[in-house]
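Here is an idea for our session: we take a single protein and study its fold together. To get us started, please write out a protein record for me. Once you have written the record down, we can walk along the chain together.
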Amino acid sequence: MIMSWKTLVLVVILAGVVLMAYIRLAPSDPKHWHIALASSDPIAFGPCADHIVIVPKGARAACLLALTPSEVLDKLESIALTSPRTQHLAGSPAEGRITWTSRSFLMGYPDYITAEVSQTPQGTRLDIFARQRFGEADLGVNAARLRDWLSQI
C-alpha cells in the first residue's frame, strides 16, 4: 500500500513536532553539564571579553580578574539571570563553579555555560565555557554570549 501525499505530509509535520518537543523538554542533567573545566588554557591579561576562543560547538575564555572568586561568580550569576531565557542549572559561588542553561528563542535549543573560578597570586582566574547541546555549529551564538557577559564584569 502506497502512502498518500497528504499522509506523508502529516507524518513529516508530526515528526517535526515530536523533535521540537524533545528539544524543548529534554532534561538537563547537571552531572553531564556542570563539569570541572580544564584550566590548562593560557591566562589572558586584560578584558576577558577580548580573549574568547572559538572551539567546536561553542566558545571559551580564561582570564584574570581583580575581584574575589565569589564576587566574580556573583556578578556572572546576576548577568546570566537577566539574560533572556537563561536559568541557573547547578553550582554556587561557594562551590567555585556555576552552570547555566540558555535557550534559543524560536526552537528552544539549550546551550550550557559553565564558569569556574580559582584564586591565584595574580588575582582570580576565571575559566568559562559555553557550548551547545544539539547540532554541529552554533553560528557564533556562544561566543557572542560570552562577549556580552564578560564585557559586563
Remarks:
- The domain at 29-151 is CATH 3.30.310.80 (TATA-Binding Protein).
- The mean pLDDT is 90.
